[in-house]
Amino acid sequence: MKKIKYIIFLLALSSCNKYLGTVDPDYTPTNEVTEILSDPDKNNLVLDVEFGDIIFPKAVNSSLDINTLEIEKIININQNSVINFLNEKIIISQDKAVYLIDKNNQNKFEYKLNLRKDEKAISIFEFKGDIHLLTNRSRIFVINSQNIIELADYDIFINIAPIVLDKNLLLFNVFGEIYDVKLDDYSISKKDNFTLKPGISIKSNIFQDNTYSYYLFNSGTLLTFDKNNFDYYNNYILEDLNILTSLDEFSELVDSPFSHNENLYFLDRSGKIAVYNPISSDIFWELDTNDTILSYLFSNDGYLILMTLNKIHFISDKGNIIYSYSHNKDLPISIFNIQGNIYLISDQGISKLNLIDKREDIIYKHKFSNNLEIFFQDQIIYLKDNKSLFKLSE
Length: 394
Hints:
Layout: H1 2-15, E1 54-56, E2 70-76, E3 83-86, E4 89-94, E5 97-102, E6 108-112, E7 121-127, E8 130-135, E9 139-144, E10 147-153, E11 163-164, E12 168-172, E13 177-182, E14 187-193, E15 207-208, E16 212-218, E17 221-226, E18 232-233, H2 237-244, E19 258-260, E20 263-267, E21 272-277, E22 282-288, E23 293-299, E24 304-308, E25 311-315, E26 321-326, E27 332-338, E28 341-346, E29 349-354, E30 359-365, E31 373-377, E32 380-384, E33 388-393
Antiparallel strand pairs: 1-23, 2-33, 3-4, 4-5, 5-6, 7-8, 8-9, 9-10, 11-12, 12-13, 13-14, 15-16, 16-17, 17-18, 19-20, 20-21, 21-22, 23-24, 24-25, 25-26, 27-28, 28-29, 29-30, 31-32, 32-33
């Protein structure tokens, strides 16, 4: 009888589809996304969460109302154009010209910029009330009355925008060198070196925690500075994360890591997310959306909103996907939030997402190009793509 019971047990064990036994010592756990709402048309889940005010990547005026806005083209530009908003003016570079547009009456002034071959403006900033421009050949110009005057020529090749401080510029050349420019007398000195990692050039934000400021030289090279004096620290935060993560390597960051509740949020273009404490070296949570991340929003209540090639995910501060929406856009570009509503920008225009009815209400039909930038100025939204600068206002 015992032999019969033993044979039955072996047969049951061999037919079981669950693993029973010990885990191999070299076993590596993985954390993959379970798609809660894979098909919104066949699922009754709705998003019933007040996710708070958006604070990253850019804070938005909570009183801004887009329902009454209209879209207007301001000026034709190109993909290398740089824009800034200073002294109630919009300053735009375009090839060898600089335009100043008054935001109130739309008067436009044009200045000629004496650029060399393959030289272009990469930054526009203000110092002591004057508008300055920096080129990729590290030349500094100032707009003085009716002219643009060259103030300095450092003959250093740079391909990303500098860090603009109160009285200093931090320049980063293509060989991994950091230079400090004192704007009071335009003197320059070498500050430090950093190790270059493979990556693509992106327009990185500068985010801070209690101690450090974070900036991406490229999508794979994270630079860390002292929050107060901007001394460079070679602290290997990204390298430490890659040692500890159970996911694949974080090597193509969407933006600089931002801080919330003493944790840093790392978003990788491939779809990976890690919430990492750099002091304790603990990973609070991590997951893999298995889809390319194109745009993100983060609220003061700890909610992360991701737009991927196929979906928009709403993720809680504990790393749970509480809702997923299939946007069905062939070329999604970006998302933004106004008064608790999510707006999606694609090559077809701007759509307001109705998450309860699971539909998209098209507000503006327009063919935007990639590399879109969004600027929030009081009650006005500006959109810059590779061809034009647009204004959304009443």
